Amino acid sequence: MSDILAVSHLGVHLDGPDGRRLVDDVSFDLADGQRLGVIGESGSGKSLTALAILGLLGHPLRATGSIRLAVGDDTVDTVSARQRRLDAVRGSVVGAVFQEPLASLDPLMRIGAQLAWPLRHHRGLRGDTLRAAVLDALAEVQLAEPERIARSLIHEVSGGQRQRVAIALALAARPRLLIADEPTTALDVTVQAGVLELLQSAVRERGMSLVFISHDLPVVAGIADRVLVMRNGRVVEVGETRQILGAPREDYTRTLVGASRALDDLLPSDPLEGDRA
Ligand SMILES: Nc1ncnc2c1ncn2[C@@H]1O[C@H](COP(=O)(O)OP(=O)(O)OP(=O)(O)O)[C@@H](O)[C@H]1O
Questions:
Q1: Looking at ligand 1, which atom is closest to the CA of residue 50?
Q2: What is the pLDDT of residue 277?
Q3: Cβ(253) to ligand 1 under 6 A?
Q4: Which residues form the signal peptide (predicted)?
Q5: Whose CA is nearest to atom 24 of ligand 1?
Q6: Contact in structure between 19 and 62 (CB atoms under 8 Å)
Q7: What pLDDT is attached to residue 1?
Q8: Which entry of 34, 75, 99, 268 is 20 to 30 Å from 152 by CA?
Q9: Residue 274 domain-assigned?
Q10: What is the whole-number distance in angstroms between the Cα of residue 23 and the centre of ligand 1?
Q11: Which residues partner with 67 through β-bridges?
């Protein structure tokens, strides 16, 4: 299996006299079709690592090291690549879904027009074929009434629908790698499971690779085949999901896993149990 992503000695620091290192010497690989969960306390550098992979760090943040993304038989280093190369790679090779769907959606553009852009730009679709592909992309993320959604502005649809649109947008140009940074955290709990299920099935059906950032360890256990643990901008450990979450080697990971189990223990397994007692 070849690698879709190779992160090598990634550093992210603040430019200027302070020069603080926010991500420090992070290295990991991701094979084609593999799903990597990234966990760690708040502020541990998970999102900055994701943004660096996407080549989206801007001033005052600066990346060092290398992040090689496979593009056909070639690779692109998103740490050093020029803007034009990054624009060509984003969407078509690597897609992203963020915690807040509005981060990737334009509030002033109709949803159909937003989806048409990657389909036209990366897949070369035009006219009726393009129109049909926009509706298909909305139907694929299980949005009922795709015609109405396509005509809507983003504030005219619900939070769960917005995240489905953001997922459709991330998948539109058929990237081989998806970066999902806490994709359901901002959603109402009643729609979280549905959006997660959608993400999971889209990744599986397309055989995509996935970097999945989350605080929800049971969800990570269900979606990832490998897990990377971060703390203070550094990698604590990385390995197979079963080993990392089932038999962690590092104290820090044990604490994270323990905290998650402690929460499980507080909850009755049957939500109606308490009422009946
Ligand atoms: N634009 C920025 N300028 C200065 N510091 C930043 C910037 N972005 C992030 N940081 C700092 O870098 C560190 C890592 O942030 P990051 O967002 O990657 O953490 P995280 O692990 O994703 O946290 P969370 O789980 O809360 O999303 C934090 O200390 C954060 O305050």
A1: 18
A2: 42
A3: no
A4: none
A5: 42
A6: no
A7: 58
A8: 99
A9: no
A10: 9
A11: 7
Domain with residue 218: its CATH number is: 3.40.50.300
CA of 104 to the centre of ligand 1 (A): 19
Q: What is the pLDDT of residues 179-232, one digit of tens each?
A: 999 999 888 888 899 999 999 999 999 999 999 999 999 999 999 999 999 999
H/E element, 193: helix 189-206
Q: Is the pLDDT confidence value at 166 over 50?
A: yes
In a domain, 273, yes or no: no
pLDDT at 268: 65
Higher local confidence (pLDDT), 242 or 17: 242
| Centre of ligand 1 from the C-alpha of residue 144, in Å | 36
Residues 149, 67: contact at Cβ < 8 Å?
no
Q: Of all protein residues, whose CA lies closest to atom 9 belonging to ligand 1?
A: 48
Judge whether 272 lies within some domain: no
The dihedral built from the CA positions of residue 117, 68, 41 and 25, taken in this order, carries a sign that is negative
Share the mean pLDDT of the chain. Answer: 92
Strand 35-39 vs strand 61-71: parallel, antiparallel, or unpaired?
Answer: unpaired
Check pocket membership of 22 for ligand 1, CB cut-off 6 A.
yes
Compute the distance from residue 48 Cα to the ligand 1 centre, in Å: 6
Domain range enclosing 95: 3-266
Tell me how many domains the chain contains.
1
For the segment 73-87, what is each residue's pLDDT rounded down to a tens digit? 899 999 999 999 999
Q: Which residues contact 113 (CB under 8 A, 6 or more apart)?
A: none
**Contact 86/94 with Cβ under 8 angstroms?**
no
